[in-house]
Write a structure and sequence with these properties.
Elements lengths: L6 E3 L2 H5 L2 H9 L1 E3 L40 E3 L1 H6 L9 H28 L1 H9 L8 H26 L22 H19 L3 H23 L6 H5 L1 E4 L4 E4 L26 H14 L10 H5 L5 E5 L6 H19 L3 E5 L11 H14 L4 E7 L1 H4 L10 H15 L9 E7 L7 H4 L4 E4 L6 H12 L18 H10 L7 H14 L5 H14 L5 H15 L6 H5 L9 H11 L5 H48 L1
Parallel strand pairs: 1-4, 6-9, 6-10, 7-8, 8-9
Antiparallel strand pairs: 2-3, 4-5
GO molecular function, one term: ATP hydrolysis activity
Pfam families: AAA
InterPro entries: ATPase_AAA_core, P-loop_NTPase
């Protein structure tokens, strides 16, 4: 893969010349905290009944608001090497210190490049000579603050990237960061090192927690600095440029965190498409989506399918227990993993599970956000699944939903269709549930596509699945049947789509028949819109988002083709071509949109919503009936006992 033309290289000479300054900072700096307060570790009382002395507070008028905090020596090398019992530094401690030195040097080099690009370097020289013009003092201050934010974010970004390989399952909660200073870049770094030292004092009791504390601190700094940078002036030069550190394979793209482009080593059992019996539409769309992901262009950071329409960013698979949702996940993950292995692309698969629900306030949301960020990383092909989402994401207004479940719901809603959601086309998220009616309505509607996982349906399906699961270790004759002939995907899918020419759910069928009787055949945009309005009158949850999901599904149907297998097997034919070539090749395969496609997709989507609503209402009614029955029985027994 070639590098993008807008990358500016930070050479090794640019970085290594700052090593001495970086080491000096790690050896020791004095810093007086401006915003944060020192975090004190619990200390034993020096004598019974006498506590530690309170901090001195000046009574001199005019000095009351002046900080009386003393400058504190920050010696990170000593702090890191003092973790644990061993008097000699461990390999992990050495890696952390080398990572911090490298990150500081990269940050200083990026700050230097920013200064040169914005004219700040000249203003610094004029300031040393006392010659900064009065008219430019405000500009000088703004540029210093902008450089401080850029350097601070780059330091945290590089630290997180360089130490990612040292991370383990251990995590720590350090709380928020406070000492974010923007007077100048050097003071910003001193403040960052001071607060990191404070956190290491409290949390770094062994090597695993040392790494976890440094990474947690870097994540918190990036989040807070990026938030501050949204309203800060003079940052265009940093936001618009990309700095490349070739030796570390690190690209700094403004205030976007960089992630090490490493894939997840999967240990799941993969399933081949012919091992998925039934579920024709779901299987077909999963196979298409797996190949769509591979069209992603790592240089342009965009997928032609995302630009042309037809890319599925989020989908929901629902069906009764035992119909094959897990098998579908195994099939799709296996396909993408195999394609990525052939092309040499990093593949990352993650599942959000009940382990991510935490009793600690805010931690569940953080876990969900980390899951999203890992999958959407633009440097990898990502596949994220949320199995049994009805158990993970709480339904707002439901008294049974925990605070952690509601946090996860909020994060997923914002990430899947929030104001800041950017669909690059490098990843997809699948939500699966046996009880989709228990999923929050707004979250469920953020699923752009619906996969009805209905399992084996026909007689041939049941013969096929029996033959598949029985294996070959028997002598029972097959009989009058051709194994898997009914699973021929194109024929089965065509029949499945045609089956949606009319609605399946009774409530929707009544709407369809009434509208068709009033206005005739649904063959124009106006008539189709009238049908949609009729659906909305029958179900108030059928909103504009539903229309968007339907039109997206129609665009997917326009892309109703599979990229040829040879394109996946021989990457030079498609995968390694330039973005414009890929886009042109895809456009040649695109099909025209027809009225039948639109009607079928309206019915498919609306059927699922009516199915969820009917189930939800029926469950609620059944629960109320049961409660009334229990009350009546309890009352009867009480009166019998009393009388």
């Amino acid at each position: 893969m070639s590098q993008s033309a807008d990358l500016m290289e930070l050479t090794e000479d640019d970085i290594r010349k700052h090593y001495a300054a970086a080491v000096a900072m790690l050896e020791g700096v004095d810093h007086t905290p401006r915003i944060a307060k020192a975090k004190e570790t619990p200390q034993a009382e020096k004598s019974a009944g006498l506590g530690t002395r309170r901090r001195f507070r000046s009574t001199t008028p005019g000095l009351v608001t002046r900080s009386t905090a003393r400058p504190e020596g920050v010696r990170l090398i000593e702090r890191v090497e003092g973790v644990g019992e061993d008097v000699l530094p461990s390999a992990v401690q050495a890696s952390v210190l080398r990572g911090l030195r490298r990150a500081l040097a990269i940050a200083l080099a990026a700050g230097e490049a920013f200064s040169e690009a914005t004219g700040l370097a000249e203003l610094k020289k004029e300031n040393l000579a006392g010659r900064v013009a009065e008219a430019r003092r405000a500009e000088f201050g703004e540029l210093l603050a902008a450089e401080a934010l850029a350097v601070l974010f780059t330091f945290a970004n590089a630290t997180s990237f360089l130490l990612a390989s040292q991370a383990s399952e251990v995590s720590v909660e350090i709380g928020g960061v406070e000492e974010i200073l923007t007077d100048n870049a050097q003071l910003a770094l001193h403040g960052a090192l001071w607060e990191l030292d404070q956190d290491l004092t409290l949390f770094a009791t062994d090597d695993a927690k040392l790494v976890a504390t440094v990474l947690a601190y870097a994540e918190q700094v990036m989040e807070k600095v990026a938030l501050r940078a949204q309203n800060a002036p003079r940052l265009a030069a940093f936001n618009s440029a990309s700095y490349r550190v070739e030796a570390d394979n690190l690209t700094i793209n403004g205030f976007t965190p960089a992630h090490a482009a490493k894939g997840t080593k999967l240990t799941m059992t993969f399933k081949k498409p012919n091992e998925v019996v039934g579920n024709h539409i779901a299987k077909y769309q999963s196979m298409k989506l797996a190949k769509m992901l591979m069209a992603y262009d790592f240089d342009r950071k965009l997928n032609p399918f995302a630009e042309l329409g037809g890319f599925i960013f989020t989908f929901m698979g629902d069906g009764a227990p035992g119909t094959g949702k897990t098998t579908l996940i195994q099939m799709m993950a296996g396909l993408v993993s195999g394609y990525c292995e052939t092309a040499g692309y990093p593949f990352r698969y993650q599942n959000l599970s009940t382990d991510n629900i935490d009793s600690y306030q805010g931690k569940s949301g953080q876990n969900a956000k980390a899951f999203i960020n890992n999958v959407i990383d633009p440097n990898v092909i990502g596949f994220g699944t949320i199995d049994d989402i009805d158990q993970l994401a709480g339904k707002r207004g439901d008294r049974q939903s925990s605070a952690g479940q509601l946090e996860i719901t909020a994060v997923l809603m914002e990430s899947f269709a929030g104001a800041n959601t950017v669909v690059r086309g490098n990843c997809t998220f699948g939500m699966f549930s046996n009880y989709p009616e228990n999923v929050d309505d707004a979250l469920r509607q953020r699923a752009g596509a619906r996969f009805l996982v209905d399992g084996p349906i026909t007689r041939d399906d049941y013969i096929d699945i029996l033959a598949l699961l029985m294996g070959k270790n028997h002598d029972i004759p097959l009989g009058d049947h051709t194994v898997f002939a009914a699973q021929e995907i194109k024929k089965a899918v065509a029949a499945s789509f045609e089956g949606h020419s009319k609605p399946h759910e009774d409530g929707l069928l009544r709407v369809y028949e009434r509208v068709s009787k009033d206005i005739g055949s649904l063959d124009t945009i106006a008539k189709l819109g009238t049908y949609l309005k009729g659906i909305q009158e029958a179900d108030h949850r059928f909103t504009g988002r539903a229309i968007k999901n339907i039109t997206d599904a129609v665009k997917v149907r326009a892309m109703d083709f599979e990229l040829p297998d040879e394109w996946m097997e021989e990457p030079d034919l498609f995968l390694f071509k330039g973005y414009d070539d890929k886009k042109a090749m895809i456009q040649e395969l695109r099909q025209p949109i027809t009225v039948d496609m639109v009607i079928q997709e309206i019915n498919r989507y609306a059927d699922s919503e009516f199915r969820y609503a009917d189930k939800s209402d029926e469950v609620a009614i059944a629960n109320m009936v049961r409660e009334f029955g229990l009350s009546e029985e309890a009352k009867r027994r009480y009166l019998e006992k009393k009388g």
